[in-house]
Amino acid sequence: MSEITVGELKTHLEEVNLIDVRETEEFDQGHIEQARNIPLSTLEYQLDAFDPAKTYHVICRSGKRSARASDILEQRGIKTVNVTGGMLAWEEQ
User: Fold this and answer.
1) How far is residue 84's CA from residue 51's CA, in Å, rounded to a whole number?
2) Which residues contact residue 71 at a Cβ distance below 8 angstroms, ignoring those fewer than 6 apart?
3) Rg of the chain over all Cα atoms, to the nearest angstrom
4) Cα(11)–Cα(53) distance, integer angstroms
5) Given phi > 0 = left and psi -120 to 50 = alpha, else beta, which region is 62?
6) Which of 20, 33, 39, 66 is a good FRET partner for 45, with 20 to 30 A between their CA atoms?
7) Is residue 17 within 8 Å of 34, Cβ to Cβ?
8) Which DSSP category does 56 fall into?
9) Which residue is catalytic, options 6, 9, 60, 81?
């Protein structure tokens, strides 16, 4: 799995498919405008939402859930980039 920092994400934000894997309640409390919410708890039921021809940047609160989500997606042939530090790092910048 590839990784990117939030600083790098900010420079390419308009060009990426951003998936936020936090639970809906967390997402509703604040998120990156371009992000699509697919909670980790429902990810395996929503695999048809992903196009294997695309690469998805995955974010969560701190980077742990997004790493797990990236592993799940990569095992199914979907290319991912994990956003290290997650929303905590995003909010610090």
Assistant:
1) 23
2) 1
3) 12
4) 22
5) alpha
6) 33
7) no
8) E
9) 60
**Is the per-residue pLDDT at 93 higher than 90?**
no
Q: How many other β-carbons are positioned within 10 Å of the β-carbon of residue 72?
A: 17
Half-sphere exposure of 44 toward its Cβ, with a 13 Å CA cutoff? Answer: 5
Measured in degrees and rounded to the nearest 5, phi and psi for residue 69 equal: -60, -40
User: Is residue 51 pLDDT above 90, yes or no?
Assistant: yes
What is the value of pTM for the model shown? 0.96
DSSP 53: T
**Contact between residue 10 and residue 83 where contact means Cβ atoms under 8 Å apart:** no
Q: Which residues contact 28 (CB under 8 A, 6 or more apart)?
A: none
Q: What is the pLDDT of residue 39?
A: 98
